[in-house]
Design goal:
With 200 residues, the protein is mostly helical. The chain has a single domain, classed as 3-Layer(bab) Sandwich (minor pseudopilin epsh fold), CATH 3.55.40. Helices cover 50% and strands 12% of the residues. The protein has 7 helices and 3 strands. A 3-stranded antiparallel beta sheet has the order 2-1-3. A hairpin with a 5-residue loop joins strand 1 and strand 2. Helix 1 packs antiparallel against helix 2. The protein is globular.
C-alpha cells in the first residue's frame, strides 16, 4: 500500500491578517520555510525507511525514529498552532462554553490558567512549545512543555492548544523578548478551534 506524503497545510487566513501581533514577514517565514522543512524532513525519512525495507537494508532505528519524531512532531504541532490562531477581531479574549467550564474547574479561573500557561511558555529551555492537553484517562486539563518537537506528553492526552516559542516563531517581530510574544499570543488565540479540539 502506497502512503501519501505529508503536505504543508494552507492557512485559514492571509499572511498579513495576524498583524500587528505577528507580522506578514514573520508568519510567511515561519509557515512557508520552517514548517515546510519539517514536512520535507518527515517525507524524506519515510522514503528512507521504505527503501530500506524494499532492499532489506538495516537502519540505525534509534537515530531514524528520533529524527522522524522531530520532523513529524514539528509538522503536527505547527499544523495545530496555525489553527489555534485567528485574526484579532475573531480571536483573543476568553473561551466560552464547555472549555471555559473545564478551565475554571481545573485552574480556578481563566486568569490563573493564563498565568500558568504563560509561565510554562516563558520557561521552556531553548526551543520548544507550551501545550494545553486534555487527559482521556481522567478528563483533567494539563499544561506541559514540549522540548523541540519531540512530543513529551502524558500518555492518553489530547493536545488542545499550543504556543511555539522557538525563536524562529517570533524573532523578526520581538527579537529576544519572548515575554512580549507570549502577551501578543493571547490577542489571537482562536478559542472556538480550541473548544472544537476538546469536543473531539
Amino acid at each position: 500500500m502506497t502512503q501519501k506524503n505529508y503536505q504543508l497545510p494552507e492557512l485559514i487566513y492571509d499572511y498579513d491578517e495576524l498583524a500587528p501581533f505577528i507580522s506578514e514577514e514573520q508568519l510567511r517565514l515561519h509557515h512557508a520555510k520552517h514548517h515546510q522543512t519539517y514536512v520535507n524532513g518527515a517525507n524524506a525519512i519515510f522514503d528512507k525507511i521504505a527503501m530500506a525495507r524494499k532492499e532489506n537494508i538495516d537502519l540505525d532505528m534509534k537515530a531514524v525514529l528520533k529524527e522522524l519524531s522531530f520532523h513529524l512532531g514539528g509538522h503536527i504541532l505547527h499544523s495545530l498552532f496555525w489553527r489555534n490562531l485567528a485574526p484579532a477581531g475573531k480571536a483573543g479574549g476568553q473561551p466560552a462554553g464547555i472549555l471555559a467550564e473545564k478551565i475554571n474547574s481545573e485552574f480556578g479561573d481563566f486568569a490563573r490558567f493564563k498565568k500558568e500557561f504563560s509561565q510554562t511558555a516563558l520557561t521552556v529551555e531553548g526551543s520548544g512549545w507550551a501545550a494545553l492537553t486534555h487527559s482521556l484517562e481522567d478528563g483533567r486539563l494539563l499544561i506541559t512543555q514540549i522540548e523541540k518537537h519531540n512530543v513529551n506528553l502524558f500518555p492518553q492526552s489530547k493536545i488542545l492548544l499550543v504556543l511555539d516559542v522557538w525563536e524562529h516563531a517570533y524573532y523578526l517581530d520581538y527579537k529576544n523578548e519572548r515575554t512580549k510574544f507570549i502577551e501578543a499570543f493571547w490577542k489571537i488565540v482562536n478559542w472556538q478551534e480550541v473548544e472544537k479540539n476538546l469536543e473531539k
